[in-house]
Amino acid sequence: MPVRRGSWLVVRLWCVVVAAVLVAGCVEPPAGTEKRPSTEGRGHAETARQNKAAIKRLGGAVDYGRVDPKTGQRSGISATITPAMVRAAAAHDLGSPADSDIRPPGFEDLPARNRARGHLLGRQLGGSGELEGNLVALYQRRANSPVMRDYESAVAEAVERGETVRYKVRPIYPSPTTRGAPSAVRITAVGNHGFRLDVLIDNTAEARVREYVPLPAGS
Predict the structure, then answer these.
(1) What string of DSSP letters covers 55-109?
(2) What is the average per-residue pLDDT within 20-26?
(3) Which of 83, 135, 176, 212 is buried deepest, with most CB atoms within 10 A?
(4) For 199, phi and psi rounded to 5 degrees?
(5) For residue 195, how many other CB atoms are within 10 A of its CB?
(6) pLDDT greater at residue 14 or residue 106
(7) Is the pLDDT of residue 151 over 60?
(8) Pairing verdict, β 135-138 and 196-202
(9) What is the pLDDT of residue 46?
(10) Pairwise CA distance, residues 119 & 128, whole Å
């Protein structure tokens, strides 16, 4: 039976439409050929609540303290840091960078090219950058890095070796009414296998350190 010319044109038009849809990716590809969602360029992000819950699941604990409503002063943090926390932080599954919308007191008073929103509970220890109470205005060089960073790294290395560390960081302000940056930061740490640390870091470009209990030899 001969095919009508009109029917043949309809069939050809239908083929063109189907081909265009396939090219556009609107039809599901055959099984086994689907593309996974790309994670390229996707940074780790977590809310403060997620951070606290994750730390608890990993056997640790954290108290991010409080922010004084009048002066903005941070009371400091206390935490129990476990090996699981440090491993998760190293894998970027715990902790977060400082939120750029948070401007701790004194941040604008520091040099524009040498200031930081410094974590009290360091990111490599699982600290959140989404909580105002965990961020203070620091000189980036040298107070935040390398000085404070190196002490935090020493704590992380001790925990990686199997220590569980009780860790406290307290910003020191010139007076109870100061509305600016802290003048210093005090770090204390006590591990369950002998690790000890107690240092006071000046929040200046020079970042002078007073070691009341220095790092153990070899740390």
Answers:
(1) HHHTT-EEE---B-TTT--B--EEEEE-HHHHHHHHTTSS--PPPTT---TTGGG
(2) 41
(3) 135
(4) -135, 155
(5) 20
(6) 106
(7) yes
(8) unpaired
(9) 85
(10) 8
Q: Mind giving me the DSSP string for 151-208? A: HHHHHHHHHHTT--EEEEEEEE-SSTT--S--SEEEEEEEETTS-EEEEEEESSSS--
Token output for 12: 């050809």
Q: Rounded to whole angstroms, how far apart are CA atoms 145 and 152?
A: 10
Decide: helix, strand or coil at residue 32: coil
Distance separating the N- and C-terminal Cα atoms of the chain: 91
Domains annotated for the chain, with CATH where assigned, are: 61-213 (3.40.570.10)
Q: How far apart are CA 45 and CA 23, in angstroms?
A: 34
DSSP code of residue 42: P
Give yes or no for residue 106 having a pLDDT over 70.
yes
Name residues whose C-beta falls within 8 Å of residue 41's C-beta, 6 or more positions apart in sequence.
none
Cα 179 off chain centre by? 25
DSSP label at residue 120 = S
Q: Does residue 116 surpass a pLDDT of 60? A: yes
Burial code (b: 16+ CB inside 10 Å, e: under 16) for 146-159 equals ebbbebbebbbbbb
Please say whether the dihedral angle defined by the alpha carbons of residues 125, 126, 131 and 137, taken in this order, is positive or negative: positive
- The pLDDT assigned to 126 comes to 98
Q: Are 213 and 155 in contact (CB under 8 A)?
A: no
> Does the pLDDT value for residue 203 go beyond 70?
yes
Count of residues in the chain: 219
Based on its alpha-carbon atoms, the radius of gyration of the chain, rounded to whole angstroms, reads 27
